[in-house]
Design goal:
about 25% strand, 7-stranded antiparallel beta sheet, alpha+beta, rod-shaped, single chain
Length: about 160
């Protein structure tokens, strides 16, 4: 009695491996592109949430005497530092208290500036996609650009006229 060999030949195995390699070559870049687009869209949504939170902060300023404007919020390593002009004492003050109320992820670095008229400017950076979200006071939309981290800052200072 002779046993039949059951299995695949080397040629068949190589053909299957070649087909899988072709499929991987096509799908991996597409998948990575989709993931990067998702990260950029999430970053844009986070920037929009921060802008709205800054606008809400300004709206509350007319009702609350303890809100200070102009205000510069600086993010560094997910930490938040606030620099503002205390209009009561006319002095420049700094705090680490979280001022803006928003949902979403803090940027890795950057700034948000709210002036006395409620105009919001923003330049925030996200390292995993090497992108900067910017918005000037006159802009209606947020712009996402691939730039170096050092080029994603605002030069506004709330303590100088």
């Amino acid at each position: 009695m002779r046993l039949k060999n059951k299995g695949f030949t080397l040629t068949e195995l190589l053909a299957v491996i070649a087909i899988l390699a072709i499929i991987a070559t096509i799908t991996v870049p597409v998948t990575l592109g989709v993931l990067n687009n998702s990260k950029e869209n999430l970053f844009k949504d986070d920037a929009l949430a921060l802008t709205r939170a800054a606008q809400n902060y300004y709206a509350r300023s007319s009702l609350n005497e303890s809100i200070y404007l102009p205000l510069l919020i600086t993010f560094d390593g997910k930490n938040e530092t606030n620099k503002y002009l205390n209009n009561t004492t006319n002095t420049c003050e700094t705090s680490t208290k979280k001022i803006l109320e928003y949902s979403g992820q803090n940027p890795d670095s950057g700034n948000i500036y709210i002036d006395k008229n409620g105009d919001v400017e923003l330049a925030i950076y996200r390292e995993d996609i090497s992108s900067c979200a910017t918005k000037k006071a006159s802009d209606k939309n947020i712009t996402i650009q691939k730039v170096e981290k050092e080029n994603c800052v605002l030069t506004n200072n709330p303590c100088t006229p």
